[in-house]
Amino acid sequence: MKAILHTFFKPVGFAGGKILPNGDLQIPKKEITASAKFYPYKLDSVLIEVLALRAPDGTADANNITIAKSLFVEAKPIFLNWKTR
């Protein structure tokens, strides 16, 4: 499934993804809609939020979207720098 991780001009809501035993964030396909939703992910003491919404063409090719923990680990320093500006 294609997901867009940012949005402009769409209403947003908070949602809960599932944290898998390996630390990956899993978002059920049925939760991905035309309205963006925040999915929180806490890494150490840092709260990172993912925005997800359905691709404009509505394509879907999986039951879940899984975001690897390694991506959050890599993004953590960037996110911390952004939050301090």
Shape: globular
Fraction in beta strands: 35-45%
Tally of discrete structural domains: 1
Radius of gyration from CA coordinates = 13 Å
Q: Helix- and strand-based class?
A: alpha+beta
* Biggest sheet overview: 4 strands, mixed
What is the count of DSSP helices, taking H or I runs of 4+ residues? 1
The residue fraction in helices comes out at 10-25%
| Poorly predicted sequence stretches spanning 5 or more consecutive residues | 1-12
Please, what is the average pLDDT? 75
Compact overview of the structure:
The protein has 85 residues and is an alpha+beta fold.
Describe the structure.
The chain has one helix at about 70-85, and strands at about 5, 10-15, 20, 25-30, 35-45, 45-55, 65. The longest helix is centred in the C-terminal third of the chain and has 15 residues, at about 70-85. The strands form 2 sheets. Strands 1-6-5-2 form a 4-stranded mixed beta sheet. The chain has a 3-stranded antiparallel beta sheet with strand order 3-4-7. It is globular, with a radius of gyration of 13 Å. Helices cover about 20% and strands about 40% of the residues. It contains 1 helix and 7 strands. With about 80 residues, it is of the alpha+beta class. It has one domain.
Descriptive keywords:
85 residues; alpha+beta; four-stranded mixed sheet; three-stranded antiparallel sheet; 7 strands; 18% helix; disordered N terminus
Write the layout of secondary structure elements.
Elements (H helix, E strand, L loop, with lengths): L2 E2 L7 E3 L3 E2 L5 E4 L7 E8 L2 E9 L9 E4 L1 H15 L2
Parallel strand pairs: 2-5
Antiparallel strand pairs: 1-6, 3-4, 4-7, 5-6
